[in-house]
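User: Reviewer 2 asked us to show a designed sequence for the structure in our supplementary figure. I'm pasting the structure tokens here. Could you produce the per-position amino acids so we can include them in the response letter?
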């Protein structure tokens, strides 16, 4: 398995969090945890995505996945190579004029969303021999999208992002103390940019943080879980929903790709807020 990360150009990073190149020489079945939205460009091979509660979806040449609120499964056949692009919450509205809540747990053909702007640069990505060239083509593509949408204004709810990134417990009352709109408006903004209500985001990011603690060696489970879980069975249930495996399976390295991702990021000093992949 091969995985490499590349940073977008500095002025694009508030919309696009990272580019990544993935290749597998052998057939692979991997659980993927709940994550932010992604664009994935199939370079070689094929496979399927199994979203929670849905039928298997054949991987198309270029597709966009909305923010996922449950773990899902990727099946990649031998020789599959993918170039991926992580979309930050601000990017949903600015780049694609998409409400993240309407896109949550959905898969779209990118050309249906981005229209003709995507065509030339997507061809450049597929014809490139090196991931660095693919990243440069993506920079050009997102620059073109931003130029087309330069006159559009949006008010990004930075307070919600700060709340999700806070290293304290994800308490919704704490969020309401820092945001200057009503609880109903907060719910609407969270759905628009992050794909879910604050309550569901709270559950998702508690599980993601626990996965990081387990990877870093925290034990027993109560230390890795942190506050917010009623008991061990509640923690295991929530962990499995958002990470795709039980805590013990994760600890035993059965979620291989998730561990490779986190190790690779640490080695390459990538800080990707709100992201799991």
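Assistant: Here is a per-position design you can include in the supplement:
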């Amino acid at each position: 398995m091969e995985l490499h990360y590349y940073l977008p150009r500095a002025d694009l990073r508030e919309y696009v969090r990272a580019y990544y190149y993935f290749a597998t020489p052998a057939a692979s079945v991997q659980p993927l945890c709940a994550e932010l939205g992604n664009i994935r460009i199939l370079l070689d091979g094929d496979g399927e995505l199994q979203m929670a509660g849905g039928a298997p979806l054949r991987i198309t040449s270029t597709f966009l996945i909305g923010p996922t609120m449950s773990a899902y499964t990727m099946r990649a056949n031998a020789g599959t190579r993918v170039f991926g692009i992580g979309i930050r919450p601000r990017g949903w509205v600015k780049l694609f004029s998409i409400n993240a809540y309407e896109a949550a747990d959905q898969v779209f053909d990118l050309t249906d969303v981005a229209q003709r702007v995507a065509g030339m640069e997507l061809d450049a990505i597929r014809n490139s021999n090196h991931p660095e060239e693919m990243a440069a083509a993506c920079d050009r593509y997102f620059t073109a999208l931003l130029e087309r949408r330069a006159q559009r204004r949006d008010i990004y709810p930075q307070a919600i992002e700060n709340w999700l990134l806070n290293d304290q417990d994800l308490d919704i009352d704490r969020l309401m103390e820092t945001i200057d709109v009503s609880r109903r408006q907060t719910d609407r903004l969270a759905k628009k940019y992050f794909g879910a209500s604050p309550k569901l985001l709270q559950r998702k990011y508690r599980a993601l943080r626990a996965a990081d603690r387990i990877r870093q060696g925290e034990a027993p489970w109560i230390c890795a879980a942190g506050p917010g879980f009623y008991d061990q069975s509640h923690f295991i249930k929530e962990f499995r929903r958002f990470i795709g495996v039980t805590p013990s399976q994760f600890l035993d390295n059965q979620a291989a790709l998730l561990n490779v991702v986190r190790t690779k990021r640490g080695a390459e000093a990538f800080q990707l807020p709100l992201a799991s992949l």
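For the response letter, you might also mention the following. The first helix runs from residue 89 to 96. Strands lie at 2-6, 16-24, 28-32, 37-44, 47-50, 57-58, 62-65, 72-76, 80-87, 107-109.
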